[in-house]
Amino acid sequence: MAILTVDGIAYNHLRVHIGEPKRTASILDGKNAGRLKSGAMDLDTIGTFYNYSMTLVRERGSTEAVTEYDALYEVLTDPINREHLITVPYGQGTMTYKAYVSTITDGLEARRAGINYWNNMQVNFIAMRPQRSPS
């Protein structure tokens, strides 16, 4: 089972591997949430958003891995097609939902024979909609 699928392409079994996946559950409130005069909190719950961050690591010693890593970087940094269908681990299974990428960082490991070897891409996926809503 792949740890990450982006727009139907599975990773962690090809030439880009997933390291350190982390999830954050953000329970967001609407504009009507706030403290009352009594000091009590009045909630206006929108729902729970599951956001993921992970490090994408390029397989070493493979020019195909360089090509795949660069292609994934281009997909994730596209300013027009920012919404992606992702599948990530959740509980003892997986969760599939639409997310956008908020931040990406990586580093240039080396340059040999005219090839740039970028690696350790850190990606943050932010849910487009809540995965759980109040009933």
Characterization of this structure:
The longest helix has 14 residues, at 63-76. This protein is mainly beta and 135 residues long. The strands form 2 sheets. A 7-stranded antiparallel β-sheet has the order 2-1-7-8-9-6-3. It has one helix at 63-76, and strands at 4-6, 9-11, 16-29, 34-35, 41-42, 45-58, 83-90, 93-112, 115-127. 10% of the residues lie in helices and 59% in strands. The chain is elongated.
Q: Mind sketching the topology for me?
A:
Blueprint lengths: L3 E3 L2 E3 L4 E14 L4 E2 L5 E2 L2 E14 L4 H14 L6 E8 L2 E20 L2 E13 L8
Antiparallel strand pairs: 1-2, 1-7, 3-6, 4-5, 6-9, 7-8, 8-9
Number of E-type strands: 9
* Basic shape: elongated
As residue ranges, the low-confidence spans are: none
Radius of gyration: 18 Å
Content-based structural category: mainly beta
Report, as a whole number of angstroms, the end-to-end distance: 32 Å
Major beta-sheet overview: 7 strands, antiparallel
Strand order of the largest sheet: 2-1-7-8-9-6-3
Classify the helix fraction into a percent range: 10-25%
Average predicted confidence as pLDDT = 92
- Helix-strand string: EEEEEEHEEE
Strand content: over 45%
Secondary structure tally, helices: 1
Summarize the structure.
The chain has 135 residues and is mostly beta strands. The protein has one helix at residues 63-76, and strands spanning 4-6, 9-11, 16-29, 34-35, 41-42, 45-58, 83-90, 93-112, 115-127. The protein is 10% helix and 59% strand.
List keywords for this structure.
elongated, mainly beta, 7-stranded antiparallel beta sheet, single chain, 135 residues, 10% helix
